[in-house]
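Weekly structure sync, notes
Attendees: PL (lead), two postdocs, one rotation student
Agenda item 3: pending single-chain targets
PL asked that the sequence for the first pending target be pasted directly into the notes so everyone works from the same version. It is reproduced below exactly as submitted, 570 residues in total.
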Amino acid sequence: MSDKNHLRSILSKIDGRGYKAYKDIEGNYQFKDFNLKIDRVAGDPFASPSKLRILISKDIAGFPSNLCQSKIRAIALRDYLTRQFDRTVKQFSCHRGTGKSGSIAIATTKQEVIERSSVYINDRDLEVRFLVGLPARGRTILGFQAIAMLCEDLPKIVENSLKYDSLNAAEIQRHVETVEDADWLRQQLKTRDLVAFVANGAILPRRSGIDDRPLLDDATVFRSPPSLEIEFDLPNSGSIKGMGIKQGITLIVGGGYHGKSTLLRSLELGIYDRIPDDGREFVVTDPAAVKIRAEDGRAVTGVNISPFINKLPQNRSTVNFATANASGSTSQAANIIEAIEIGAKLLLIDEDTAATNFMVRDRRMQRLIAKDKEPITPFIDRVKQLHRDLGISTILVIGSIGDYFDVADTVIAMENFLPRDVTEEAKKIADSYPSDRQFEASKNFGTITPRIPLNSSIDPSRGRKAVNLKVRGVDEISFGSFKIDLSSVGQIVDSGQLETIAAAIIYAKVNYIDDRRSLRAVLDLITEDVASGGLDVLSQYPRGDLVAFRHFELAAALNRLRSFSTLTKK
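Predicted structure, written out during the meeting:
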């Protein structure tokens, strides 16, 4: 292994040469307190930055063992260090030449605390993976500026961001304990027959649609109605009270702009832990919760949507339904069935993003259009069966369909962002003003048909490229010759999740999709591999941009790949 002085020597020798000479620095270099691994050097200053790693022994880093004594604590500490490294490099990273020259960057973070491959901690070392734009003017190496970056700035960054004695110990402890408490709280939901919990004192409104930080000015502090209040004793923070949402069917009602959708958005992201002071640290939701919406134009492959849609014109089958251009109702039906197929236990639906004809048929429409002329069985007639037959709860934001009062177990009214339990009032209204609509469903929900993905339908190649992958934000994956549109999958919060999902699709094709295993079985095997081997099992080389995902979002990506094809499992 070379040392820092050898790296300095190489950089001084290649100063003024063509950019490709930077390849000479690939390798390992021992600094005073850490080991620098230069894994891959970019061939061009305008290409993706070079990939580097820092390994510092746990003894030198000095973090107390209790901070990573469990998996969730280790994830929280790794998240904290990613954020701290990012804050520190911003003090040193500067423009040093052309293109991306002079940049030092690590994976970006938001409000959620999610497992990432940017920082790892094992029994011996703390490892940090990051990107560097090596300095150049045009395609001419600026070797002495590279010396300043790697040999002078980098040791300072390590000192200020990766050593316990240089950091705020109380802040680290709070970060780890907040995440641990939230994770513990989420695990307790099922034991109390709950699907979600919103702590008193939570701040749900966000600053804007593009700024997910908490609204600070004039934000209403959440407080549970007394009838729905429940208490937990957290491992670190002690007693906490808040609104418990029980299993079954829950309606969130209220006037426009009073906080209905804000509450639902907080619940759909309650599958993630959050940083301290986010305002929603202790808003937690069943980890098997899936947001459902209509999605006009999406492809659907071999889904049994017959519990909701049957007897189409021209006798088209809906037991093995496929289309390249789904309508609002067929897409929403497919989204529900696909989620159930993978193990969803809670559906989250906002009337504003649902297909109206899928949600309900009122008595007037029933009398005008007879049931034998209407292929859709509306959700209102299946929602209780979902819970009774399959153990799946539903939370719905409803602003205009009062018929749902008849099927609701709990009704929560939002008024100026504060909840009120109006269940009894809603039931009295339902009794006083009966809808007189006819129940249109069969006696039982119906069959969920497992599907078998076909290996040949998943092709990441394009032209001469064996693997052609590109991610755009949190909305789209270019996969081979196709674009996977995930703009309607609202529980993806990080572009790194799309990078990881794309890698997982290829991993599934290579290892598990064999034209025999069901989609659920394939996804379970991938989940087990990641749980035991970490995110690195999905890549052939060290990557710092991978972010954990749920199998629901991986399934969503596969289901929206337009080449995807399946068989029905017999």
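Discussion points:
- Residues 2-167 form one domain.
- DSSP finds 14 helices and 30 strands in the chain.
Action: rotation student to compare against the earlier draft before next sync.
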